[in-house]
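Something for you to look into today, if you have time. Could you write out one complete protein record for me, on any chain you like? The space below this message is yours for that.
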Amino acid sequence: MSEPAPPTAAPAPADATAPFQDTVGDADASAARAAMVDRLMQSGDLSPGAVADALLAMPRQRLIPQAYVRRSAPDETPPRWDLLDWSDPVHRPELLRVLYSGDSVSVQHDGEPLLGRRAGSREGGAMTAMSSVMGMTARLLGQLDLRPGQRVLDVGTGAGVTVAAACRIAGDAGVVTIDRDAHVTAAATVRLAAIGHRPVVVTGDGELGWPERAPYDRVFVSFAVPRVPMALVEQLAQRGVVLMTVGTSSPSWPALAVITKSAAGVVEAELRAEQFGHRAGWGWDRLSLSAAFRQEMSSGDGVTSHGHRPPPPDEAHGMWLALDHLHPGLVRAFGAPGLQIGSPACGSWLRVSVDGNGTSTITASGPRPIREEIQQTAARWKAAGEPAFYRLEFDANGTQWASSGRGRNRLSWQLTDDRPRTTEDSR
């Protein structure tokens, strides 16, 4: 595989326009925007302050004037989507709901150019750029503690929501956004200018950062990585903060890496177990459960045994995070009744139901001892003090370790970058 081309700053386009004024439909968008912000506050994902003000001021229908809606069932193949366009009055009611629902918004199909597209249907392929779920984005922007005058690096431009918020709070002059897809950066340059923002927009590998404007007070990565890209840490200013999702080949148990650099230049980091995280970045095709495999896990025959101690609850995010790293290759079937976990690589699965007497019934199939892996990890996690976060340590050789506890009770694992380039299994 060839090395990525050196990053290049995207030039400002000639057709960048002044900020839009409300036209027909924009008043409705303003009301929908206010309602979305109110929902985020009610859920606890957003607090009054700079981030809330930025989201209230962000006309998403101008920043994301086109978006996809899926018309096929989740497991239907080939998948089918419709591209909606705000310039078409017929599309506006549905697009308004999509943009301000708070859900993720798909904006690019199979790496296509984003500018000059015609609305209509698409079939097959996959979505390759999106705006993340707003609850998660709002929480992370709040944790980032953006302030006026800060230098901000937004890694993974996507639909431009986080960079627009950073510009609103910190000011355009200190903000850089980078994405490896030239179609994404070209569209972001035009659409950010259309709502009055002109940050530096760069086409390049975000994991390498953008040293030309370093150091940065804040670095925000909007895609998941298997380990921390050290270039981003090196480009962090004193008293700076980096936030990014760290995960494995499984999407089920993400973590948030929080990295700080003190006034003396000392780097400290921790890995916080989270319920939700960003999707995998470019070149990382993570595991999934097919419809047939989920059906087998839900109702298939296996070896059933009774009277087991129930596994740790879903809220024990630190335990499940440890399981994901110590015993990789497992995927949780969220939304299924009870606990259902499968190993797509070998076809093994586990189904757990809690009995009325406080014990659980377990049905398992396949060669992998998933129940024993959970038990062993739970015991080590309890001995380490049931941590919800882990120290993240970097050594001079580039090795990265997550750990908690001391001595015999230490629970730890090494972060490695073994991103597969193709789907590991089609189950």
Summary: The first helix runs from residue 26 to 43. The chain has eleven helices and 21 strands. The two ends are 27 Å apart (CA to CA).
